[in-house]
Amino acid sequence: MRCAPIATFPHHRLQAYQVALELVRLIHATPIADAEMRKHARSSVGSCARNSAKRSGRRGRADKQRGYSIARGELCEAVSAVQIDWALGGCSAERLRAVHQLAGRLNAMPAPLTQQAAARHRAVGQGPRHGVART
Fold first, then answer.
1. Is the N or the C terminus of the chain less surrounded, counting Cβ atoms within 10 Å?
2. In this structure, is residue 3 part of a structural domain?
3. Is residue 129 part of a domain?
4. CA 129, CA 99: separation in Å to the nearest integer?
């Protein structure tokens, strides 16, 4: 029986972390025939979720952005491992589609810092780089 976390940490409020956990469960339930691809997929998707959580606990912008970049790279590695297994005749096309769909949903979630920076630039009428207005 699975119990809910007792303490609330910053990552518990992140929608991206919740989707990453869904992807962890999906990939662990996916029958990946190739042992090496299975190991990579499971390790990478776990790292994706951990880095999503880690970035929420960081204070500095650079640290948060680094965690986001690492999480996205791990997401790509997990998906590619499942896709490689499919290409080798392992997992079914249906499972691959399910992994792609959920991973695509996670990948489409914008980085919070990217959103904040864009909002700041719009608020002051600046372009995205070096405070130079676009023409």
1. N
2. no
3. no
4. 35
pLDDT above 50 for 130: no
pLDDT of res. 11: 83
- Name the residue range of residue 20's domain: 10-124
pTM: 0.75
Tokens of 54: 């880690």
Contact, 111 vs 65, CB < 8 A? Answer: yes
CATH of residue 45's domain is: 1.20.1440.60
Residue 60 CB neighbours (<10 A)? 8
Residue 110 CB: number of other CB atoms within 10 A?
Answer: 11
Contact 64, 113 (CB under 8 A): yes
pLDDT category at 112 given cuts 50, 70, 90 is low
CA dist 16 and 19 (Å) reads 5
As a three-state string, the secondary structure of the chain is CCCCCCCCCHHHHCHHHHHHHHHHHHHHHCCCCCHHHHHHHHHHHHHHHHHHHHHHHCCCHHHHHHHHHHHHHHHHHHHHHHHHHHHCCCCCHHHHHHHHHHHHHHHHCCCHHHHHHHHHHHHHCCCCCCCCCCC
